[in-house]
Specification:
The protein is an alpha+beta fold. 25% of the residues lie in helices and 20% in strands. The chain has six helices and 14 strands. The strands form three sheets. It has a nine-stranded antiparallel beta sheet with strand order 3-5-7-6-11-12-10-9-8, with helices on both faces. Helix 1 packs across helix 4. The protein is globular, with a radius of gyration of 20 Å. The structure holds zinc ion (2 copies). The site of one zinc ion has 4 residues, from strand 12. One zinc ion (ZN) binds next to loops.
């Protein structure tokens, strides 16, 4: 089974080949589509408290957030040294890194949108701790924290959780954002995303949620119909740099955003949610402005935005919706979750 990183010389990026993960557990196709009908505990869920995982490890009877090393890691400190690549045009190396899972709650039936704001705050604290812990290690160049939500994005278990890939390289999008942010800072003396936020505040039409120190907006340049950025207004390179007040405000805006997503079609709203944070490879990333991105794959209920010719073939997005209209839709929704309304 191949487990290594291979360099893509045309795209100039690493591809993680983790063919050893083919036997990982999959329960995505057998679960109910309606998370409201889910029980709070499932005996064969490998993320519920007290249950055994495939590795044989048994989850503690946790009552808050539970973090553990992924049993089927795509990057690992024990990844094998790869065989020499077949040709001098090819490069490969060991898939070194640390992969973790963060369970948001012992409750199988909750999601980010159903957590209390204080619990979202606790999750932010856990993200801060993981970024500092993993990012502080010499062998880790970048900490990618992300949540995949919904069967349409391939989630294998509906228990609310996110994942962390702490890798020996910087993911391509982060590298691009860091380069753009640095260039902007060199040219203007200002921070790119802070200026984007100022532009969004100046216009106002695409703001979804906002409080004193945090904001959620559908950017002017959104690629997906309901793409939303959630960010602290102050340019912090990572989540670890937030003050307690900023963390609390971010929790509030984050929760408000995901509640609106669920309220849109009164169904659990699928998305890919990466945290974009400064790399931890020792570089100077003071110009990087931490933010959370939501990439929802649906344009309408059960209607996927298919990535096709322009997106997959060419690498540029063709958007069929207007960010101004979509932001207005989200803004007009109530901020109490539909399942909790009477
Ligand atoms: Zn569970
Ligand atoms: Zn980003």
């Amino acid at each position: 089974m191949t487990w290594e990183e291979r360099w893509h010389p045309l795209r100039e990026e690493w591809v993680i080949v983790a063919a050893h993960r083919q036997d990982r557990p999959w329960s995505g196709e057998t679960v109910s589509h309606d998370s409201d009908a889910r029980p709070s505990y499932v005996a064969d869920c490998y993320l519920c408290p007290g249950n055994a995982r495939v590795s044989g490890a048994v989850n503690p009877n946790y009552d808050g957030i539970f973090v553990f090393d992924n049993d089927h890691p795509c990057v690992g400190l024990d990844a094998p040294a790869p065989a020499q690549s077949e040709s001098s045009v090819y490069r490969n190396r060991s898939a070194q890194g640390i992969a973790r899972v963060v369970c948001y709650s012992p409750r199988h039936d909750l999601s980010l949108a159903l957590l209390a704001t204080s619990e979202v705050e606790g999750l932010i604290t856990a993200w801060q701790r993981e970024y500092v812990d993993l990012g502080g290690r010499a062998e880790i160049d970048h900490v990618l924290i992300f949540e995949n939500k919904g069967e349409v994005v391939g989630v294998s278990n509906p228990h609310p959780h996110c994942q962390i890939y702490a890798t020996n390289f910087v993911f391509k999008t982060i590298e691009t954002e860091a380069r753009a942010s640095q260039r902007y800072s060199d040219e203007t003396g200002r921070t790119l995303l802070a200026d984007v936020i100022a532009a969004e505040q100046g216009d106002g039409r695409r703001i979804v949620s906002e409080n004193e120190t945090a904001i959620a907006f559908l950017p002017y340049f959104a690629r997906y119909a309901y793409e939303v950025f959630v960010a602290p207004k102050r340019a912090c390179p990572s989540i670890a740099a937030l003050t307690d007040t900023e963390a609390r405000d971010l929790a509030e805006v984050l929760k408000d955003t995901v509640v609106r997503f669920d309220n849109l079609w009164q169904m659990p709203f699928p998305y890919v949610m990466p945290l974009h944070q400064a790399p931890t490879d020792g570089g100077d990333y003071r110009a990087f402005h931490f933010h959370i991105e939501f990439h929802p794959p649906l344009r309408r209920p059960h209607l996927l935005k298919y990535l096709a010719g322009p997106e997959i073939g060419g690498g540029n997005f063709l958007s069929d919706t207007s960010p101004e209209e979509k932001a207005a839709e989200l803004r007009a929704l109530p901020n109490t979750h539909y399942s909790l309304r009477t």
